[in-house]
Amino acid sequence: MDAISQLTKGFICVAQISKTKGYDGTIICDIEEHYLSDLKNAPGIFAIHKGSLIPYFLDTSKSNLKDGFLKFDTINDKEYWVDISPRQLFLAERDIKDIRPQSQADSFVGWSLFNEEENIGIIASIEEYPQQIMLIVKNDSKSFLIPFHQEFIMDISEIAQSITLQLPEGLLDL
After folding, report:
1. N or C: which end of the chain has fewer CB within 10 A?
2. Is the domain of 90 the same as that of 142?
3. CATH number at residue 162
């Protein structure tokens, strides 16, 4: 079990941090819809900051969960979020009413995705389609829908929390 898995044992990842919004420390997140009410009612929301799992307290008057905008009581600077790694938010299992079973693929949310040596972005979510699993990958400028197919996988590194694929020529240009 890697250090992050040990640190987050007893916690469930409920959101991915996409980016900051403005200068006051508000962040934009991709929140798992299943956990919206749990997130709103949780006594604390956790993130890994400088190697420790830290609780944060949601400022509900300045947050809009439906749109993914989160503002925390003590965070007033967008630079604070630079040190959050992985860029995930967690809830304690005890604060969740109905825990959704996590598939193996779901555990890759928040990981970096590479096409050979090119960093494509961060895996924001994973969608299961009838023919295959698709990775929704986001970077600063756009989102990609990438097929997660066994033949494309070159490496999966749990330590680096990254997946390296060898994608067909032109797939990222679509």
Report:
1. C
2. no
3. 2.30.30.240
- Co-location of 69 and 152 in the same domain: no
pLDDT digit string (tens) for the chain, length 174 residues? 466 667 788 888 888 888 888 889 899 888 888 888 888 889 999 988 888 889 999 988 888 888 889 999 989 988 888 777 667 889 998 998 877 655 555 678 888 999 999 999 998 888 877 677 888 888 887 888 888 888 898 998 888 889 999 998 888 876
Q: Which two three-digit tokens encode residue 1?
A: 């079990």
